[in-house]
From TrEMBL:
<dbReference type="InterPro" id="IPR050723">
    <property type="entry name" value="CFA/CMAS"/>
</dbReference>
<keyword id="KW-0808">Transferase</keyword>
<protein>
    <submittedName>
        <fullName>Class I SAM-dependent methyltransferase</fullName>
    </submittedName>
</protein>
<dbReference type="GO" id="GO:0008757">
    <property type="term" value="F:S-adenosylmethionine-dependent methyltransferase activity"/>
</dbReference>
<dbReference type="InterPro" id="IPR029063">
    <property type="entry name" value="SAM-dependent_MTases_sf"/>
</dbReference>
<keyword id="KW-0489">Methyltransferase</keyword>
<dbReference type="GO" id="GO:0032259">
    <property type="term" value="P:methylation"/>
</dbReference>
<feature type="domain" description="Methyltransferase type 11">
    <location>
        <begin position="48"/>
        <end position="147"/>
    </location>
</feature>
<dbReference type="Pfam" id="PF08241">
    <property type="entry name" value="Methyltransf_11"/>
</dbReference>
<dbReference type="InterPro" id="IPR013216">
    <property type="entry name" value="Methyltransf_11"/>
</dbReference>
Length: 271
């Protein structure tokens, strides 16, 4: 990732810690935890690549996994250490490094790897392929990888309520029907948005077998305003929707049109 991306996350470390507590982003968090529960091995070494301030690592540590945090932003990694210590937990290691430099990790060591953010920000295809191939290398045979992409199709839908003024230019709408690269002036920082077709193809080209994929926001995708209103006005309805959306995040009728696409893949024995 570039210094632009590093600078963004250094500056917004605390915001990233709170982001997944937002009523709408909580759907993404709960759906991802659902996938971890369904598909990760029951124990072992996990490398959280692009760990941010440690939200997922803390959940893994609570469940008894041996977790290594691998993060570009020194400030986010420092915050993760603080939060993990406050929770009375202990991580296996903290590595402050760019996800394009996974060669520093040992081969065939991890039972699972999470790549839940870096691929959002690597606009170079060769570099994305390298990250996926390196994730394959560091996994044990039979190990599970979980990759997350920002889905251009889902962003297009969310934009109707979140940035509809941009659609005064009709070409802007059609841009989101294909993969798209944004600089910090158009995206929240330097970004790469995939389509589900392209994202799955990249993971397969990395040597993995895809087990399943999910749309993190499920049937609530693009409904930030309504979801937030229900959180404030009717917590029972909100909680029920949150549970149902996370439980059904793999449903094919929803998963191709959500903002976050999550792919579960495996390194088969003998690979």
């Amino acid at each position: 990732m570039s210094e632009v991306v590093r600078g963004y996350y250094d500056e917004h470390a605390l915001q990233e810690w709170h982001r997944l507590d937002d009523p709408y982003s909580r759907i993404e968090f709960m759906s991802t935890l659902t996938l971890l529960r369904r598909y990760l091995p029951t124990s072992g070494h996990v490398c959280d690549i692009g760990s941010g301030p440690g939200k997922y690592a803390i959940e893994l540590l609570k469940q008894g996994y041996q977790a290594t945090l691998f993060e570009l932003s020194a400030r986010e990694l420092e915050l993760a250490q603080i939060k993990i210590q406050e929770a009375g937990l202990h991580a296996e290691d903290y590595i402050c490094e760019d996800a394009r430099n996974l060669h520093v990790l040992n081969s065939s060591f991890y039972d699972a790897v999470l790549v839940l953010g870096p691929l959002y920000h690597v606009r170079n295809l060769v570099e994305r392929h390298s990250i996926i191939q390196e994730a394959f290398r560091v996994l044990k045979p039979g190990g599970v990888a979980i990759f997350s992409y920002i889905n251009a199709w889902g962003v297009l839908k969310a934009g109707v309520s979140e940035f509809s003024e941009a659609y005064r230019d009709i070409e802007y709408i059609y841009d989101y029907l294909q993969e798209i690269e944004l600089d910090e002036n158009r995206g929240f920082t330097e970004c790469y948005f995939a389509t589900p077709v392209e994202a799955r193809a990249e993971v397969l080209q990395g040597g993995f077998e895809i087990v399943t994929y999910a749309g993190a926001e499920g049937f609530l995708a693009g409904m930030r305003t309504d979801v937030t209103r229900l959180y404030r006005e009717d917590r029972t309805v909100y909680d029920n929707l949150l549970q149902a959306a996370s439980d059904t995040c793999e449903s094919p009728q929803y998963r191709d049109a959500t903002e976050h696409l999550v792919i579960v893949a495996v390194k088969r024995h003998g690979d």
